Amino acid sequence: MAGSTTGHMFRVTTWGESHGPAVGCVIDGCPPGLRLDASVVQRELDRRKPGQAKTSTTRREADICEILSGVFEGKTTGTPISILVWNKDARSGAYEDIKDLFRPGHGDLSYQARYGIRDWRGGGRASARETIGRVAAGAVAGQLLFEKGIAVRVFTLALGGVKAEKLDMEAVHGNPYGCPDSEAALAMDARVEEVKKAGDSIGGLVELWIDGLPAGLGDPVFDKLDGDLASAMMGIGAVKSVEIGAGFAVADLKGSESNDAMAAQGFLSNNSGGILAGISSGARVVLRLAVKPIPSIGIPQQTVDIHGAPATIVTRGRHDVSAIPRILPVAEAMAKLVIADHMLRWRAIQ
Amino acid sequence: MAGSTTGHMFRVTTWGESHGPAVGCVIDGCPPGLRLDASVVQRELDRRKPGQAKTSTTRREADICEILSGVFEGKTTGTPISILVWNKDARSGAYEDIKDLFRPGHGDLSYQARYGIRDWRGGGRASARETIGRVAAGAVAGQLLFEKGIAVRVFTLALGGVKAEKLDMEAVHGNPYGCPDSEAALAMDARVEEVKKAGDSIGGLVELWIDGLPAGLGDPVFDKLDGDLASAMMGIGAVKSVEIGAGFAVADLKGSESNDAMAAQGFLSNNSGGILAGISSGARVVLRLAVKPIPSIGIPQQTVDIHGAPATIVTRGRHDVSAIPRILPVAEAMAKLVIADHMLRWRAIQ
Amino acid sequence: MAGSTTGHMFRVTTWGESHGPAVGCVIDGCPPGLRLDASVVQRELDRRKPGQAKTSTTRREADICEILSGVFEGKTTGTPISILVWNKDARSGAYEDIKDLFRPGHGDLSYQARYGIRDWRGGGRASARETIGRVAAGAVAGQLLFEKGIAVRVFTLALGGVKAEKLDMEAVHGNPYGCPDSEAALAMDARVEEVKKAGDSIGGLVELWIDGLPAGLGDPVFDKLDGDLASAMMGIGAVKSVEIGAGFAVADLKGSESNDAMAAQGFLSNNSGGILAGISSGARVVLRLAVKPIPSIGIPQQTVDIHGAPATIVTRGRHDVSAIPRILPVAEAMAKLVIADHMLRWRAIQ
Amino acid sequence: MAGSTTGHMFRVTTWGESHGPAVGCVIDGCPPGLRLDASVVQRELDRRKPGQAKTSTTRREADICEILSGVFEGKTTGTPISILVWNKDARSGAYEDIKDLFRPGHGDLSYQARYGIRDWRGGGRASARETIGRVAAGAVAGQLLFEKGIAVRVFTLALGGVKAEKLDMEAVHGNPYGCPDSEAALAMDARVEEVKKAGDSIGGLVELWIDGLPAGLGDPVFDKLDGDLASAMMGIGAVKSVEIGAGFAVADLKGSESNDAMAAQGFLSNNSGGILAGISSGARVVLRLAVKPIPSIGIPQQTVDIHGAPATIVTRGRHDVSAIPRILPVAEAMAKLVIADHMLRWRAIQ
């Protein structure tokens, strides 16, 4: 029943509910001597903060983090780093009248089945607010990786059926959707507007690139790099599919097509997505995630209450229209946690 | 560097190389009093044994298992169950002349990078023979689940571009490919014949159904049921994509389409694939895997040797043409291990 | 390098330094539905609070705890319980001038060797203030055990050479030393007075009794109940010896003396201390700990600085004269954590 | 219920029952490139083999080990090392007529309570034969430590009340009791003779020295070096007390006596036993264990059967008179496992 900790060497525990007093994380195993202050963490939290794109909830949280331990005179000491963010703009009233209904697509039913009790306010522990702890921890991991020349990039491949046709990394930060195709981003914007008006929500595709990884990362046979990345990504609320490299497409390839030939300069293709037999090959690691639409919508839906009686529900509250783009820093953080942990396990970071 | 153990309560460690003396597993945490004898394990090992479909290697192994501990008078005692299978038909000669070359699509390069040394005979630890330990352990887990009315089914959705058009569970065991569409199975057979002749290999799609799960299984937020299943599946050698429920397709759905409405009789659809917020919902758990073609092919490929010098390689040896169907019992075993572990963690099994 | 988490099912992570902003813990895996409010935790924290016996530091901390997550409407929800206590009366000035000296008997040298950096203020992470997180978590575990009829008692067998001659449990709470012999407690008081005047410190002996345990608790062969209790106790700052049952004395016994004969009414003696082959036998679990004197003393000591140069040090600051009695609630808390974890692992608690 | 694995980075799982087909272990996480062959392991197994001292059982086992994986061309490959020893001279007949009786001082009752079923032949999993796996794994760990200049020594301080008065390390291997005092060893021999005649058994004291450890080893606050060593030692069948450094004696010391002063050349005393705040200080690590008498004796004892009915039992079979000296290589092995694991966790071994 204790599932809130991830990592072996770089170990992260998150805690907190959407409408409780605060959310946060404890990072244990961060090497000593790493430069760290709250601004490093704050920068990443600001990326996932609500209210920056049209897709976002109108809940207003400054999400200011406090580092409560593990840092002394601007450097980590090797002891646990506790990071806390207070919840301020929680409005539980909107949830009061649906507290006995199971919202379709949400974890209400499954949490109730598991625990027999749940904090129904704002999704409780299943809320996206839980990811604050992940993003904060990912920011610390990111500092470690930065020093090793490892970079994680994440962008939106598709949103509500609108696909990026170009992969222009310069464009990614120039639009609110993290899309590497500026024109597609405009079309996404229009799509969001339209869906919002209809009270509906949309899904999309997200891609991650991890560059600078040494070959040799990953522990066969159950703690493989691809296995751990898949777990980290599938464990993000809205993700229903994880692909590595050519991913789904390998089903239709022949061996002579899918094998990545090698030459003196390196691999001649990257269908493997940078991972062979669960261990990094030195090529770019490529991941693709399918993100389901936000389940909270303004359209009436058929459901049951906690006693099994049929009911109709409209999930008001202040909700995102899509988990994209706010899921981007979360996916990036999870990738960083996995990589930092494996780097430490392999002693590629001292 | 210790990645050969999976599970927390139902903990499995596999060991062994393709051309070493033996392969096996140790299962720790199996509840006492479970009826178990070697025949239960043998039945599952026979399913993954080489030589049963045209896709298979011609290596001939009887793969007879011995249970060395943890069972007394036909019942488990709660102590570790050690299962061993001797390697008999290993022919290392075929590997001797390519031992310094990195086979494209294989783990040679990544293992070399990680360990600086590797048993090059038959793929060593990265060989499919390692899955014997998984399948043996899965057979034990399966006994536990059977007593709880939980059933795992696995079948081939597509092979080398040939797709099953029907999901006839009766048909699955009537053809060598585990295909739920008898006609498609014939076409698959023709496809295999053709690819084999060309010295090439093919990939495909596999689907798993888990029925009988209680709602409430899965530990938020990092040991979720979907995260653990994704890790288990992506950690199987040839798998490059894992989907749950509607999977990849959710990217194009709207919330009003992807949400599974509920009525007194249960869910009215199953886009969630039986998992909500990482916890089972009581609906069927549905997983889909994309399986890459076997990287060993008879066609010359461009590669490098361990010193980085360019070379051409033909990977002879005795190889499967596709990981399908032999991957089916492996995927099934991994699913059983994850479920058994979560059932014990949740105390749904005493 | 991540060693701040203990337990498998009832998993506790502590964080925080003596002179940082706060200290605390996260408890993951506490079953849902347990009655819990801050007062339950506060009661235990008050027992370890400084300033209640002559042995204690004059640091004045109210040590008021806040529960930040995992509790809803007075009951646990099964999600992580985050508990925080702010540090208020930290005075780092006293440490400023000895920050480059290794205090004898303290962890200064070993922490420096491990991390190359340390928060020298008040002992940093090696301070007794870290135990606040343990005691808070132990209070939650204690609630669980209380409902199962399991009671942990702890008392002072000896202090500064003064030994309890009686084991009168009524007397334990009637004196500031937790001594089961009221007369001995008076002699302990005189001893403390005398040692304090001399600027010195003293050690002692502590005993724990765990009653109400079912037979069958403990996981052979490496997670035995006695092994886990020994680890928990030896991991408390000042403890240098752990005995179970007859303990050290078994070395001089014969088998015919040390074996506990059994009759219909139970065991006829308890040399085993309630544990056989690492598993509880149903008899009272008995543990004995030797506690070393507080290393901070007012008497000049010979030492070296971080560069290895010889120096003389007087460790001023506000220190306890003995870890007893403040170590009593810490040892009790650690015992509760071990028992709660094993009860959950064995599914003796649902 | 899975307690047969120890270590995080150097992870060891033991399996096997006394009268099952075999016993063994799997070592996962051993670094690649370590010279290893069966003779290294055999040497240590020979030290714990029955029949070398008068204290020993007359069971005759050659205890020849086979290494089944993880070693290629005389070197470890980084993959799991599986080691197996067949049971040959098991005679279950002697146990047949006491299979329903709980032997005093043994784990019969506690195993029965835990599992509701047990392999009663020869103590099953609770037999000393389980330690074969530990000793084999310890031999591998020892190879690692040897390369780092770390040495573990173990000797008998007392046996059946006869105490070593000298600590002459040369003498240790010159007598069958591992006693550092040759004269005391003779007295021990006489004592054993006498006790054997009486059908009784005896306990004793064992001491371990670990030299060559770097300062800085150990993970605060729950995976401390002293906590992990205490767990490892207390988890050995017959051990009822573990002391570190001055151990039990600290209870009577003053701070000015127990603190180890430091000078340029190092510590001026070693009451801390080489561990400060749970982390190695660079001084010799000193451990002392109290070992209880073997519970199997030829003298009738009062007990109950599995239904609770009173009975008298004589535990025939072929038993040691004392766990000493055969416990020596086991304690040494456990120390090596803990140290190797911590060296890897701290990246002091690459």
Shape of chain A, please?
globular
CATH architecture of chain A: 4-Layer Sandwich
Annotated CATH homologous superfamily of chain A: Chorismate synthase AroC
Average predicted local confidence, pLDDT of chain A: 95
Instruction: State the name of the first-level CATH class of chain A.
Output: Alpha Beta
Order of helices and strands of chain A: EEEHEEEEHHHEEHEHEHEEEEEEEH
Q: Quick one: biggest sheet of chain A?
A: 5 strands, antiparallel
Write down how many β-strands of chain A occur, each being a DSSP E stretch of 2 or more residues: 18
Helix content of chain A: 25-40%
**Which chains share the greatest interface?**
A-B, 109 and 109 residues
Structural class assignment of chain A: alpha+beta
Report the sheet-strand fraction of chain A. Answer: 15-25%
How would you summarize what this structure contains?
The structure is a homotetramer of 350-residue chains. The first copy, chain A, has 350 residues and is α+β, with helices and mostly antiparallel strands. Chain A has helices at 38-48, 93-96, 108-115, 131-147, 182-197, 225-234, 255-258, 327-345; strands at residues 5-6, 11-16, 22-28, 65-67, 71-72, 75-76, 81-86, 151-159, 162-163, 204-211, 239-244, 262-263, 266-267, 275-276, 279-280, 285-291, 301-304, 310-313.
Describe this structure in words.
Four copies of one chain form a homotetramer. Chain A is an alpha+beta fold and 350 residues long. Chain A has one domain: 4-Layer Sandwich (Chorismate synthase, AroC fold). Helix content of chain A is 25%, strand content 22%. The first copy, chain A, contains eight helices and 18 strands. Chain A has helices at 38-48, 93-96, 108-115, 131-147, 182-197, 225-234, 255-258, 327-345, and strands at residues 5-6, 11-16, 22-28, 65-67, 71-72, 75-76, 81-86, 151-159, 162-163, 204-211, 239-244, 262-263, 266-267, 275-276, 279-280, 285-291, 301-304, 310-313. In chain A, strands 1-2-3-7-4 form a five-stranded antiparallel sheet, with helices on one face. In chain A, strands 9-8-10-16-11 form a five-stranded antiparallel sheet. In chain A, strand 14 and strand 15 (279-280) form a beta hairpin. In chain A, helix 1 (38-48) crosses helix 4 and helix 6 runs antiparallel to helix 8. The longest helix of chain A is centred in the last third of the chain and has 19 residues, at 327-345. The mean pLDDT of chain A is 95. Strand 11 of chain A pairs antiparallel with strand 11 of chain B.
